[in-house]
Amino acid sequence: SREEVAYFGAGPAPLPTPVIEAGGKAFVNYNNTGLGLAEISHRSPTANAVLAEAKSALTTLYDIPEGYEILFMQAGGSGEFSAVVHNLVSVWVERRRRKAEKALGNDEDKLLERLRKEVTEELKVDYLVTGSWSLKASQEAARLIGTKYVNVALDARKANNGKFGRIPEEATWSLTPTKREGGTGSAFVYLCDNETGVEFPAFPKCLEPQGADNEEDERIVVADMSSNFLSRKVDVSKYSVIFGGAQKNVGVTGITIVIIKKSLLPPQTATPPPALLHKLEIGGLPGTIVLDYATIAKNNSLYNTLPIFNLWIASQVMVNLVNTFGERKVSGQEEIANKKAELLYTTLESHPQVYQVVPDKSVRSRMNICFRVLGGDAEKEKEFLAGAETLNLTGLKGHRSVGGIRASNYNAVPLDNVEKLVRYLEDYATK
Ligand code: PMP
């Protein structure tokens, strides 16, 4: 039964049992309508109510300010690797075009010439590469628009013997200078808030808003929060785009949540026509329409068929958090996540001869606790995992390319299960 198994998988992750049970009923016969939620139209009043409820709960939990839009999309975190590039480079081009039009009027040839020059000389996207997901995202940007436009402002492996596991000091990052810093700024700065094992301890100081006269001269900060979504308080106003796949902390696979500043959507910025981008020769742009933020926003996330059952699961998880934590909102969940992570790290650290936590203490993740057994002895790690399995402690095997042990501590992993794992860690170490 569910109660007997303590699952620590990296994602998809466990969901709260009451939501799973209610989901079973809603899948068969939603609210006695005689239809399941996966069978109804995404344009029905029921679907709209689910969408509204999900937006409202998320707005409450994260205190999302007025100037932001919530989008529900598909194609997962990886889809957003592409979407971010497509949309934000488009915004960059559109803003440049507006400025050029003011100076040059409507002379198409002159406009094109100027824009082409600006793209060649000034277009940059900044990536902070702190783990395999931000690395993948930066590679997708290079694939779409070309390596020459991608500035890897930080490759955390360089300062750590070729391995991820530390985030070097901000002073060593090489971000594209903003207008205030004497440059022209980048189309965006991208970071992954939680990589497997490595989490930004806080919003980077050097990315704080600079108080520019014009909002367009501020940095556009994009964060992948796929693996720590709704696990701590976030000052949404510092980000331009936050995205996350639902399948770890929020729901089942198939829904991707995007929180985006409205000033990056029409009418302020129209997506440039495909022909223009093509003429500017910016790699593989434009992207597909179902990843176009403006289109999805204009259609209230219902441009095409959204999986309403999956959305409902996410809405239930979020509504439960609202009901459970009340005024404390996501900070209530944060306390629990911190407590569970602390328990595990403290136990691991109390047996340094047996366990070695992989990432540096300053950046270790509250969501994925990565460690080695006896310095990474393959036989001992196998033995450790086999012993865990016999106790129904499952999903602990590390990433296939990295090895080791990885205990994922997502929101719905109960404290009881973490305590069971702590007991096993103690027993194994003292045996
Ligand atoms: N970003 C992060 C931080 C992730 O952890 C993952 C999935 N583990 C992804 C992106 C990719 O997500 P998806 O499989 O939904 O494309």
Automatic annotation (TrEMBL):
The keyword Transcription does not apply. Residues 7-91, 216-421 form the Aminotransferase class V domain. Pfam families: Aminotran_5 (PF00266). Keywords: Amino-acid biosynthesis, Aminotransferase, Pyridoxal phosphate, Serine biosynthesis, Transferase. Pathway: Amino-acid biosynthesis; L-serine biosynthesis; L-serine from 3-phospho-D-glycerate: step 2/3. One of its GO terms (cellular component) is cytoplasm. Its cofactor is pyridoxal 5'-phosphate. One of its GO terms (molecular function) is pyridoxal phosphate binding. One of its GO terms (biological process) is purine nucleobase biosynthetic process. It comes from the Eukaryota. It catalyses: O-phospho-L-serine + 2-oxoglutarate = 3-phosphooxypyruvate + L-glutamate; 4-(phosphooxy)-L-threonine + 2-oxoglutarate = (R)-3-hydroxy-2-oxo-4-phosphooxybutanoate + L-glutamate. Its EC number is 2.6.1.52. Belongs to the class-V pyridoxal-phosphate-dependent aminotransferase family. SerC subfamily. This is phosphoserine transaminase.
